[in-house]
Specification:
With 275 residues, the chain is α/β, with parallel strands linked by helices. Helices cover 51% and strands 12% of the residues. The chain contains twelve helices and six strands. It has a six-stranded mixed beta sheet with strand order 3-2-1-4-5-6, sandwiched between helices. Residues 20-76 form the HTH cro/C1-type domain.
Length: 275
């Protein structure tokens, strides 16, 4: 039997799954036996163990009762809920690491894959100062971001198609020096052979086909998955029927956005304005 290796340090959700598997194996139980005793399917147990599906409080309490672990898994669930990752994003990250093609659209902030460490630190510090996250979550965000950016050192690296709403390059984050370095980094990345960078200008108006951040992954089996999010919730989709409208909207956006040369020229102009 092939057993998927776990990465418990990657997120609280992954840690929950790893500890669930460890306790199950310590007690000599199969996933089928745990499923039968908790009222969940074997597939659900497997998905929670491997971090593909987040646990619920009800599930955590059922596991505690079955294992006789007091409130251990209920407490671990609280760590998952308090994680800086939106629902669905952990699933997305697992697939992003294997993707051969990444398409993204962002509004308001530079996409994580293209952020400089200083820019990313400013965002984390701002969220920390307004009480949206704790220090551990801020540290987690930066750690995950650094791990994601190592994709570009992979051989071969994934193809990246990034479309940034104009607000991404005009919204000041940190000091003028931080923004200047971030915009310079964008221009450097745009020169890479595996990267296509476009800006969706304000002048597009209502023609812009997407209003919220969207990420689309092309996987080795030629399937396409999608991750989209609002302010408080993320959603990872594998169903082709759910992904197709997002892919269509993205293709429309690619056609209407500025070409790469015009996009880098606009970024250069914004750099001049902030200096």
């Amino acid at each position: 039997m092939n057993v998927k290796p776990l990465t418990p340090d990657s997120s609280p959700q992954a840690s929950f799954g790893a500890q669930l598997r460890a306790k199950r194996e310590e007690l000599g139980l199969t996933q089928d036996q745990v499923a039968e005793r908790t009222g969940y399917s074997p597939g659900h147990i497997s998905s929670v163990e491997t971090g593909r599906k987040p646990p619920t409080l009800r599930f955590a309490r059922q596991v505690d009762r079955m294992f006789g672990t007091g409130t251990k898994f209920a407490n671990l669930f609280l760590d998952v809920r308090a994680s800086s990752l939106l629902q669905g994003f952990a699933q997305y990250l697992a697939e992003e690491a294997k993707a051969v093609e990444i398409r993204c659209f962002e509004v308001g902030i530079i996409p994580g894959l293209l952020q400089t460490p200083e820019y990313a630190a400013e965002l984390a510090a701002a969220a920390l100062s307004r009480g949206a996250i704790a220090q551990a979550q801020a540290d987690e965000r930066l750690k995950i971001l650094a791990s994601r950016q190592r994709l570009f050192t992979r051989t071969p690296p994934p193809q990246l198609f990034a479309i940034l709403d104009e607000s991404c390059i005009r919204r000041p984050i940190g000091t003028p020096a931080t923004m200047d370095a971030q915009l310079e980094h964008l221009m450097s990345v745009a020169a890479l052979p595996n990267v296509t960078l476009q800006v969706a200008p304000y002048s597009m108006g209502a023609v812009r086909s997407l209003d919220l951040p969207v990420y689309l992954l092309g996987l080795r089996d030629h399937s396409i998955t999608a991750y989209s999010e609002s302010a408080q919730q993320g959603s990872y989709e594998r169903d082709p029927e759910a992904v197709r409208p997002l892919l269509t909207a993205y293709h429309h956006l690619q056609v209407e956005a500025l070409p790469q040369a015009a996009s880098t020229a606009l970024i250069s102009k914004v750099r001049e304005e902030i200096q």
